[in-house]
């Protein structure tokens, strides 16, 4: 009996009020994972005994049923969110976020959603009042309020969102500039030496304009690398930024720093967990002094991969400031983008590494602050900016979709995808703001998956493994209540989504409450001759592409007759909406 892992997920699709376009993706989702394996694997759950239906070969059929009485978990409505790297300020893309295509591309994320602007590794990410200020120059801060009144790109609530129109030649010049800057940023990454980056008042206005017009809530990570001689955080520049944001009545949540476990590499001195906790308490005090942000949310410490030294840092932080933050944040990248291969994305051992890392974080929180929410605030398929035609290809979707299932199953409250648009190859849209494969995958997730997770029962009739062979689960099944916001389906419907990493097709027979129901199939496959390397996808055989700058294509399902066996092609990802199940767990919010 080969291992089969099932996951049940639920998410919320884009409501009718959502702007047409790409950002509709950010919806809730949640998942329960049930593992079915060989009897020799202690602690695993056995498959339910079932009889073989007549005429079906036992070695290929998988029987699937769902417990429709009650959900096993409910995740945040912000479950799927986005991240922007501040390098967009550096390389010029920030000005183009106000293009019609960019607003449309972000609107698909569907509120409620989060847009995180992460500080990353810039030693001097500071805010000044105009673009003439040198990096780290705070001499202009006293005049910031008078200057900001003249900002011609600030969001005017009465006049609505302003959409910038750029000639094609400007976009072409920007792509050339960004390509040059990409080489500079790569050099900085490899040498671990980073140039200063100045955030002007105009830049902040543009960021907020983009988030607000796209229906996203902005979280801004303040720079924690400004240190006093006693190694405490120097908050003077952050205070000017907070005061300016408050003067504009910007609704922003806050964070401090990024990957504090790497500070020694960046600034030549380390910050332990205790000191980091004191820094967060200092930031909370600043927020409470400013009426606009006295009740603002604060997140952190956004640690890196939870190795032994990082866990020690987190423990020190939680002892001091565990009650100060509204959620604990961390990051995970699966593969070094400099050495990744397409076959890496098919390895089940790699897919499961995230689960082990999550348990380490949960263990610390259960010790110091039981019940504290956890966010995976930076997740990408590859580190070091990714690899062209790999981390932005169809193959990367296996890791991405499995990430959503694993984390919802383990109770992670929010997953922030790195990144919507940046200098690397982990993004969701390209430099023409055309959607990449993970964009379409995320859009389907938002449209079809609701926040309630349902338990599944799977019985797999497979060949026995050869003696000594390690069996890893290559067929992963998730199920949720169908999103309440998808008006194509009545409440009580159920959505399955399935990852098939086998190089052969698999057959699934719906049983129990799912038997003899009409099913809508959404099968995503690579489009074109590049196969798994493809940067384009097809839905049920039809290639997906934007209709125009502001219009998404219709995502048409393929209806399957009641009782039909689901045939899952090899190396594919798919969604199946089981209509009119009238599941008790899915009737009400």
From TrEMBL:
GO CC, alphabetical: extracellular matrix; extracellular space; membrane
Any one GO biological process: extracellular matrix organization
GO molecular function, one term: hydrolase activity, acting on glycosyl bonds
Family to which this protein belongs: Belongs to the glycosyl hydrolase 79 family.
Protein name: Inactive heparanase-2
Organism: Calypte anna (Anna's hummingbird)
């Amino acid at each position: 009996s080969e291992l089969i892992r099932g996951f049940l997920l639920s998410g919320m699709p884009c409501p009718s009020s959502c702007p047409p376009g790409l950002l509709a993706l950010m919806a809730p989702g949640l998942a329960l994972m049930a593992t079915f394996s060989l009897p020799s694997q202690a602690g695993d759950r056995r498959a339910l005994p079932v009889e073989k239906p007549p005429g079906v070969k036992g070695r290929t059929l998988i029987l699937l049923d769902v417990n429709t009485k009650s959900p096993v978990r409910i995740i945040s409505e912000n479950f799927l969110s986005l991240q922007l790297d501040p390098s967009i300020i550096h390389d010029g893309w920030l000005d183009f976020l106000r293009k019609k295509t960019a607003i449309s591309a972000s609107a698909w994320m569907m509120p409620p959603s989060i847009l995180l602007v992460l500080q990353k590794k810039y030693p001097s990410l500071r805010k000044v009042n105009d673009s003439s200020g040198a990096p780290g120059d705070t001499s202009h801060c006293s005049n910031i309020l008078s200057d900001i009144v003249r900002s011609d790109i600030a969001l005017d609530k009465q006049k609505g969102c302003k959409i910038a129109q750029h000639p094609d030649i400007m976009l072409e010049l920007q792509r050339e500039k960004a390509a040059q800057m990409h080489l500079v940023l790569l050099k900085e990454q490899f040498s671990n030496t980073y140039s200063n980056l100045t955030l002007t008042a105009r830049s902040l206005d543009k960021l907020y304009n983009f988030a607000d017009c796209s229906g996203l809530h902005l979280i801004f990570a303040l720079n924690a690398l400004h240190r006093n001689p006693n190694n405490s955080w120097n908050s003077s520049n952050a205070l000017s930024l907070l005061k300016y944001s408050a003067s504009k009545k910007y609704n922003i949540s806050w964070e401090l720093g990024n990957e504090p476990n790497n500070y020694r590499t960046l600034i030549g001195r380390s910050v332990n967990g205790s000191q980091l906790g004191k820094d967060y308490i200092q930031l909370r005090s600043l927020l409470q002094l400013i009426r606009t942000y006295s009740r603002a949310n604060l997140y952190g410490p956004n640690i890196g991969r939870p190795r032994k030294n990082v866990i020690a840092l987190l423990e020190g932080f939680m002892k001091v400031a565990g009650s100060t933050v509204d959620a604990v944040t961390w990051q995970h990248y699966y593969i070094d983008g400099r050495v990744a291969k397409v076959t890496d994305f098919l390895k089940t051992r790699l897919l499961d590494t995230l689960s082990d890392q999550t348990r380490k974080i949960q263990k610390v929180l259960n010790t110091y602050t039981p019940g504290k929410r956890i966010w995976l605030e930076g997740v990408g398929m590859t580190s070091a900016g990714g690899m062209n035609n790999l981390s932005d290809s169809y193959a990367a979707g296996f890791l991405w979709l499995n990430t959503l299932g694993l984390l919802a199953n383990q109770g992670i409250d929010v997953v922030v995808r790195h990144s919507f648009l940046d200098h690397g190859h982990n993004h969701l849209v390209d430099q023409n703001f055309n959607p990449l494969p993970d964009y379409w995958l995320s859009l389907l997730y938002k449209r079809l998956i609701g926040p309630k997770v349902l338990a599944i029962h799977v019985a797999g009739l497979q060949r026995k493994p050869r003696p000594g062979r390690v069996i890893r689960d290559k067929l992963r099944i998730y199920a949720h209540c169908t999103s309440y916001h998808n008006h194509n389906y009545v409440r009580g419907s159920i959505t399955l989504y399935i990852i098939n990493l086998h190089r052969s097709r698999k057959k699934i027979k719906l049983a129990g409450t799912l038997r003899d129901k009409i099913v809508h199939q959404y099968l995503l496959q690579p489009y074109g001759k590049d196969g798994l390397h493809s940067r384009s996808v097809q839905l049920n055989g039809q290639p997906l592409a934007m209709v125009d700058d502001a219009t998404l294509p219709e995502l048409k399902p393929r209806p399957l007759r009641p009782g039909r066996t689901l045939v899952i092609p090899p190396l594919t990802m798919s969604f199946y909406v089981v209509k009119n199940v009238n599941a008790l767990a899915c009737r009400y919010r």
